[in-house]
Amino acid sequence: MTMDTHHHNTAHDDMTAHDDTAQNGPAAGAPGTPFDGDHLHEECGVFGVFGHEEAAALTALGLHALQHRGQEASGIVSSDGSDFFLERHIGLVGDVFTHPSIIERLKGRTAIGHTRYSTTGAPVLQNVQPMFAEFAGGGFAVAHNGNLTNARVLKRTLQGRGSIFQSTSDTETIIHLIATSNRGPLIDRLVDALRQIEGAYAIVALWGGGMIGCRDPLGVRPLVLGQLDGAYVLASETCALDIIGAHYVRDIEPGELVVITEGGIESLRPFQPARPRFCIFEYVYFARPDSIVEGRNIYSVRKRIGAELARENPAPADLVVPVPDSGTPAAIGYAQEASLPFELGIIRNHYVGRTFIQPTDSIRRMGVKLKHNANRAMLEGKRVVLIDDSIVRGTTSLKIVEMVRDAGATEVHMRIASPPTTDSCFYGVDTPEKSKLIASRMSVEEIAAFIKVDSLAFLSIDGLYRAVGEAGRNAREPQFCDACFTGDYPTRLTDRQEELGRKPLLARAS
Ligand code: SF4
Question: If you placed Cys at 206, which of 121, 141, 375, 416 could pair as Cys (CB 3.0 to 4.6 Å)?
């Protein structure tokens, strides 16, 4: 894998301009910091344009619309058909790709981009995507949303055969599998590589001849196809098509690989057919409310989630208040269904970004107040239904409830717009270890006591399925991935099993 040595390629992998993450440890908003909204974090957003004069600028805009899927780093690789141009930086898309000179360096009519929130791999530049490699047949870049569940085992095998890894990102495994494949054309080698990997992936890739989009056989992570002025666009979500004025064509289907060249678009089905298991948490929290994912508008699903929650778990209250922003659509749905007033009883400060450095202990102790403030005028003397999308560790919920009570609420009834999060995700979402998930350790009653609410209720798993338009969860053949609520993982967890198998040995050794 070459990053900056090939004379045809220009690479700008700049650590200096936006390296607050690297310098200061976990940035604000990252798990484990006081500013963490106590949410799961989506790992990545991917985007690509084939056949447009302004491919790189459009990609920067598309990544900007996907910023919610990853705020740690972003990168674009472009190509004019023979040469490749790389810009990969630590920082927000808007900070990294604003300067015209950076876009001018990204020449060519094809570009792919990636915005990253790291789960696997440390927050260092080697792990920033798109990853680029110079194969015998030419350059190849790949941007990946998801997580492989057998990357470590594959990596060991590859290293045994002489592969030298330059990053700790599991995406590099795909590159090495392509490099070492004995198949002929690039697409065949890519398919050969993808058939060996397990887990979740939505991939946008680029080579001299065109652009590739692919979703894993279960379609765990989203990927859509759009068109703009005859150019093809691939994006994690439709909100990234909207920003550049592209029209939505269709979702890339689970197990589908599209090859986009000057000759048009070709659809391949290189995998064994499988029943799709799209990530249901995309509907609960990850995707942007204005996106349409697998035919469903996220905002509408979230409102229906709120309505289901109100039917399942009514509360004796005067008003419905969301924990903004993620709880807002569900709170609107809840309020409408329960015929209660909806009020913004908590106001969110949108400017607590990743750049907020935690200088002193006293600032750090302010915790959630940096991000959320109670709106006393709405809360005083009121019985409040508080709506949040999920509870991960419970630490933020505790502080928010305290804040709402301090502002004069007489009762706080917490309603959660998803079932209890009991299990870790291994498919590209940053989750704490199972033991850190409060719902894996405590019953609903115990969580209610811990976060000090008058009552607490979660949406049922069937209620969640009803909100996305199903009759309920089909226990024998679940229609979605819902493993973080059920522990029912739709793929093998090869690395995880190996890790668990090894634990006793490590424990004895220490
Ligand atoms: Fe989505 Fe949860 Fe499945 Fe992860 S485990 S892919 S967050 S539903």
Answer: 141
Q: Is residue 486 part of a domain?
A: no
Considering its fold, how many domains does the chain have in total? 2
- For atom 4 of ligand 1, the residue with the nearest CA is 425
What is the Cβ-side half-sphere exposure of residue 278, based on CA atoms within 13 angstroms?
A: 19
Residue 287 beta carbon below 6 angstroms from any ligand 1 atom: no
Average pLDDT over residues 256-285: 97
User: Looking at residue 413, which CATH number applies to its domain?
Assistant: 3.40.50.2020
Residue tagged 């522990």 (tokens): 487
Residue whose C-alpha is closest to residue 479's, from 311, 274, 334, 179: 274
The answer to whether the CB of 177 falls within 8 A of the CB of 154 is yes
pLDDT for 352 equals 66
Which mutation among 429, 464, 493 tests ligand 1's pocket best, with the greatest number of atoms within 8 A of CB?
A: 429
In a domain, 292, yes or no: no
pLDDT of residue 125: 79
Instruction: Decide whether any atom of ligand 1 lies within 6 Å of the 437 Cβ.
Output: no
Residue 283 lies in a domain: no
Q: Please say if 481 is a catalytic residue.
A: no
Residue 91 has pLDDT above 50, yes or no: yes
Given pLDDT bands bounded at 50, 70 and 90, which one contains residue 197?
very high
The parent domain of residue 152 ranges over: 3-12+39-277
* Sign of the Cα pseudo-torsion (25, 29, 33, 34, in order): positive
Average of per-residue pLDDT values in the chain: 88
Same domain? For 189 and 239 the reply is: yes
Helix (H) or strand (E) holding 88: strand 84-90
Question: Is the CB of 280 within 6 Å of ligand 1?
Answer: yes
Rounded (to 5) percent helix, strand, coil in the chain: 35, 25, 40
Q: Please write the tens of the pLDDT for every residue from 98-130.
A: 888 999 999 999 999 999 876 555 567 778 899
Is the pLDDT at 354 greater than 50? The verdict is no
Per-residue tokens: 438: 């409060």
Residue 395 and residue 327 in one domain: yes
Identify whether residues 263 and 328 lie together within a single domain: no
pTM, 2 dp: 0.90
**Cβ of residue 495 lying under 6 Å from some atom of ligand 1:** no
Residue 330 has pLDDT above 80, yes or no: yes
In a domain, 187, yes or no: yes
Pocket residue to mutate for ligand 1, from 281, 282, 298, most atoms within 8 A of Cβ: 281
